[in-house]
Amino acid sequence: MALEGRFFLAAGLAVAATCLCLTAVASAFAVPSVAFDEGYSPLFGDENLVRSSDDKSVRLLLDRRSGSGFISSDYYLHGFFSASIKLPKAYTAGVVVAFYLSNGDVYEKTHDELDFEFLGSRWGGQWRVQTNVYGNGSTARGREERYLLPFDPTLEAHRYSVLWAPTHIIFYIDDTPIREVIRHPGMGGDFPAKPMAVYATIWDGSAWATDGGKYKVNYKYAPFASEFSDLALLGCRADPVLRAPRDGGGAGCAEPDLLGLLTADYAVMTPQKRAAMRAFRARHMTYTVCYDAVRYAAGPFPECDVSDVEKESFSAWGESKNVVMKARGRGRRRGRKAGAGASAGAMSRLDVSSS
């Protein structure tokens, strides 16, 4: 590890060890969940937020009257946060479902944020997912990446998770890491470092979400329903202003244990995980800010792991030349077998037009 890398790790351990306490989890994907009332509170939407009878899942609805959302009852400084999410079916252009961490309600101009944003489409099942990282109000330097999903997210729930440590961030879909952001000294305050709450929302993003706002939400298909379950909050509660742990710590927090977070399965990128992440990105990533030479003519962000070979697969705008969303043809017959001449490569590529 480079000297500066050791410095940041040591600094992170020294500073954050006093405000983070986690219970070691045997498996990255067998994390304990909480009932809604134990960890969350309604945010907006009134009757458009529907809790299950056992309080373990929530339906968020969007209709002409309102979207809906909920927020964690506490703020957290670092940790592992996840939810299983099932997205709305049918025509969903303009619809945005989000699962994210933020402190925008406390730090209006210098907020931090970590996003999963799900962007609807004109064809059922063809949702895109976008991740983003903001630190200290760096919204003018958004670090977006967008991906197609290798499954239909409207048929069943899939787990989406964020690992946030003082040294790195990992976004997961189910058990596959799809993005890693390693803290680099050149990021400065762009790396999220203040306590954040966890949010889940559904709302009308007609202005931008589908083809830059070309296709709007069509409320004849409403209500649009997104289901959240398996809610996990693994971190220590912290005061967002004082940036110190709240009295009593939190569920599963017996003592400061930053080392426990950094060594948990979900925080360690093994060679196998990194290979799976690279494979996912090669097959499903449609845009990355790291290759957007138009928006950022001065060069990529310091944390970008730029490859000259990989760069050839992206346009100057950071859009993939190989991974593109395909419009589903009208009148296409379902259930047809692939022709005998179809190549193995064509069969293995994600074809979102079949969803």
UniProtKB/TrEMBL annotation:
Keywords on record: Apoplast, Cell wall, Cell wall biogenesis/degradation, Disulfide bond, Glycosidase, Hydrolase, Secreted, Signal, Transferase
Enzyme Commission designation: 2.4.1.207
Post-translational modification: Contains at least one intrachain disulfide bond essential for its enzymatic activity.
Single Gene Ontology MF annotation: hydrolase activity, hydrolyzing O-glycosyl compounds
Superkingdom field: Eukaryota
Region (Disordered): 326-355
Signal peptide range in chain numbering: 1-28
Keyword Cell wall biogenesis/degradation: yes
Function: Catalyzes xyloglucan endohydrolysis (XEH) and/or endotransglycosylation (XET). Cleaves and religates xyloglucan polymers, an essential constituent of the primary cell wall, and thereby participates in cell wall construction of growing tissues.
Name of the protein in question: Xyloglucan endotransglucosylase/hydrolase
Biological source species: Oryza punctata
